[in-house]
Amino acid sequence: MRGLDTPLRINTLAAQIVDSLRRIEYCYILRDKSYNRNIIYPAQPYFDPLKAAVMQNRLGNIDEACWLVFLATHFGKHAKNGWSLAKKVYSGGNAGHLWDWQTISANPEVFHDWLLNNQAYLSGEKFSNHRKYESLNPNSNRGTAEVFRTYVDWVQSLGGWQAFLARNHNKNPRELFRYLYQDMRKVMGFGRLGRFDYLTMLGKLGIIPIEPDSAYLQGATGPLKGARLLFDNNRDSSRSAKDLDSDLLELDKYLNVGMQVSEDSLCNWQKNSDYYQRFSG
């Protein structure tokens, strides 16, 4: 591979691969850890939507588990405020009820009114870096209210997650990922990165039996530059995302680390290919 032309580059990429594997391993730890059932309640001081999703899945509430992962993905974990935004929205504030799956799926339009009336309550809260262009503006046609409405419509078009799993229990995990990745285009605000992050997290937490069949470089920025640097020694080469996705699949036959590790590590490696830099997300 032309981009690995110095020992520094080889060692730096190897270190980024190890970091990516550790981040995935952390999700497996979350998946397998024992929790008190109270972990599902957002009133808990250290509420974590991913841990709550694991518990809801254990309780058989798959739609709720997937909804919690969606909230975690949409709002993200802010570097300073943590899960505060997801916690505030899920708890419902003074609404007297949670914005759980049962409530949001019954009438997602009501969430728009809640968002309109709770701007002060949510003031100062921030999305994570990956989601920094998302909006809490209730009047935005691309804002959180519309994101939630289209997510509800999408899940209902699947028949709900429980029914979807029952229909597809024998499907190959990679084929199922590909289908969901393409079909999730219907959800507002979830482009290439949002869909990839959401679906891979459902897989890592053991909620939906899926794994990425590709690095999905089409529409990517950092991962695409990383793949071009790796194979062409040029971040700005003209090689297509489709060709590079195929190259990464061939490479993974030897590395056997999976497509999410390839996507994540290449994205971070290309930021500084000669010197290791640790990234937390």
Largest sheet: none
Residue runs with pLDDT of under 50 for 5 or more positions: none
Number of distinct helices: 14
The residue fraction in helices comes out at 55-70%
Order of helices and strands: HHHHHHHHHHHHHH
Q: Return Rg in Å.
A: 19 Å
Give the helix/strand class: mainly alpha
- As a percent range, the share of strand residues is under 5%
Query: How far apart lie the N and C ends?
Result: 27 Å
Q: What is the typical, i.e. mean, pLDDT? A: 95
- Provide the domain count: 2
Question: Multimeric state of these chains?
Answer: single chain
Task: Give the beta-strand count.
Answer: 0
Which shape, going by the Cα principal axes?
A: globular
Short summary:
With 281 residues, the protein is mainly alpha-helical.
